[in-house]
Amino acid sequence: MKILFCVSEAVPLAKTGGLADVGGALPAALAAVGCDVRVVLPRYRSISERGWRPVGTVDVSSGGEAVSGTILDGTMPETAVPTWLVDQPKYFDRSGLYGEAGRDYPDNLARFGFFCRAVLAWVGRQSWKPDLIHCNDWQTALIPPLIRAERAERTPTLLTIHNLAYQGLFPAQEFALTGLPASFFTMAGLEFWGQVNVLKGGLVFADTLTSVSETYAREIQTAEFGAGLDGVLRDRARDLWGILNGVDYRVWDPSHDPLIPAQYSAGDLTGKRICKEHLQREFGLYERPDIPIVGMVTRLVDQKGLDLVEAAVEDLFAFGVQLVVLGAGDARYEQVLGELPRRYPKRAGIRIGFDNALAHRIEAGADLFLMPSRYEPSGLNQLYSLRYGTVPVVRHTGGLADSIVDTTPDTLAAGTANGFVFVAYDAPAMLQALRRALEAFRTPHTWRRVQKTGMAADFSWTASARKYHALYDRTLAQSVRG
Questions:
Q1: Quick one: DSSP state of residue 99?
Q2: Which helix (H) or strand (E) holds 87?
Q3: What pLDDT, on a 0 to 100 scale, did the predictor assign at position 65?
């Protein structure tokens, strides 16, 4: 089965968030379960020229303007998955992927409209032709409607929703940049309250839809989480599936992680104690093993529950914990968190920005990992935390609900407890979950059972890849019948 995996970012080439982790890991896992996979993404400035060779050009009309692009051929570093890059300096030779200084590039529709049309133009001329095109988020969501509009022989498509909040909304007057006929700008197409909604076009015209967890697939069909598209998703409910993202354990495993001060396993946690000492020293905290460290590696935005953290700060430190946070985002939260080391010296460590090696050290050195998300389509850090013996404290939503089992007497007895969960989106509920977690931390026998259950869990990409493979089969079978 030949799969073209279209994505706007993929590690280690380009990354702004979890989408890149999927873009780097899932294609390799699909190849391992028997798919002939090729990845295609834009060639951003951050991607080195080394290892890529030009193999052709494509010409695309963008809003009446002819734009040419060069196709570069190579393989994904580390996994060797065959990969094409679409190189167009006018659109992609920039400091950011989607914007800079917290603002989107104003020509993003032109940029990713060109990318989608360039991909289809290039693939149409190749001897290698995909049986199915797997699209991801709004940046590639124009591909299904373009295929529907332009191609007599339609290649089946699958669109994965990684975060419904990001939809690719643009003014109506920019619709021509999509390359679609005017008849597609209706309520039954890409029109959305007088604007162009690129993701909606993908949701309407893709053959199969997936989201990145089973719970999120249900949540986005409700008004609370549907971001205005819940009606569209309810109409497509029979074609909408949830598949939880996986973890690349080649990168995220404390038994062989080169980025942490000491390696360790569930059978010998000596290295974790060393990692905790190192983390306390790195942030100038009290170097005491009995003080629990609460870690967070997150975007500093409302979605991630930072308003709950802000509201609960005094109570949180009254519990006697240390807090270590790595992240960037809204200026408000950067300022609020940035003041904590001054207000709570030797108890708070904050780093504004992103540092991959530090993210690994926090996962390894913290005792608890806090994810109080308002919504969380899949989540990866809770899965990393399980493997690192860093017990997650999460809100019951999306992928967090699908992966973390609350610690109760029953779940402890059953051997399924791997974290602490709260339901209501408010600070008191979060603090109550943290209080229960700290009680367990101070009961070594209970704590070790919860840690060991989490560390033994298998959230590798293999299981997810098999589920995608089955959906590809289903989609192809439906297209034959259709």
A1: E
A2: strand 82-87
A3: 84
Q: Calculate helix-pair angle for 143-150, 198-205, nearest 10 degrees.
A: 60
Whether the per-residue pLDDT at 63 is higher than 80: the answer is: no
Which residues on neighbouring strands pair with residue 382, listed in sequence order?
A: none
DSSP-assigned states of every residue in 122-171 = HHTT-SS--SEEEEETGGGTTHHHHHHHH-SSPPPEEEEES-TT---EEE
Residue 352: other Cβ atoms inside 10 A: 15
* Class of residue 343 by CB neighbours under 10 A (exposed 0-12, middle 13-18, buried 19+): exposed
Note the pLDDT tens digit of each residue in 285-326.
999 999 999 999 998 999 999 999 999 999 999 999 999 999
CB atoms within 10 A of CB 266: 17
Rounded to whole angstroms, the Cα distance separating 468 from 32 reads 12
Give the count of alpha carbons within 13 A of 402, CB side only. 23
pTM: 0.91
Q: How confident is the model at residue 150 (pLDDT cuts 50, 70, 90)?
A: confident
Q: How far apart are CA 145 and CA 189, in angstroms?
A: 9
Query: Helices H, strands E: what count in the chain?
Result: 18, 20
Domains of the chain with CATH codes: 2-246+462-481 (3.40.50.2000), 270-458 (3.40.50.2000)
How far apart CA 298 and CA 326 sit, in angstroms, is 7
